[in-house]
Amino acid sequence: MLTELDVAALTQDHGEPVDRAPTHDTAGSVPGPRYSESSSFGFPGWIWKVFFGSYAVFFAALALATARDGHAVFVVVVSVLYTVMFFGTAAVLQGLGKGKPRGFECGEPMLDTWTGRMSTASVAAQVLTIPILFAFFAIAIFVIRAIIGF
Asked: How do the domains of the chain map onto residue ranges?
């Protein structure tokens, strides 16, 4: 709930709203800058290669470890098709609103995200953690399956 001081901080002398957060917070935290929620993916190409390469390793290792009969092959194929559909739909929808290149696409050192500006390393860590762990998981299943015998 806004106090009188918060309302005063958000308005100018004539009562017009100001697009900034109050300079203090009643919970004791300092408010950060506000950024728009709409940002392009704008990732460098190597992030996309590692991203999709990790999913390819995941499905390949999973198929090698588990696809020994028709039912298992069917499950792996359905999973691959679902993943292609999921990311393909997102790529098509992203392509519909193509504007000017942003972020790393046009050589900027930082990418504007919903939570603030981030460096290449920070973006890569957030985007690639899950796909790389999926790949390691499937490789571990393959190794375990190879140790106990196919």
From this structure: 1-34, 45-148
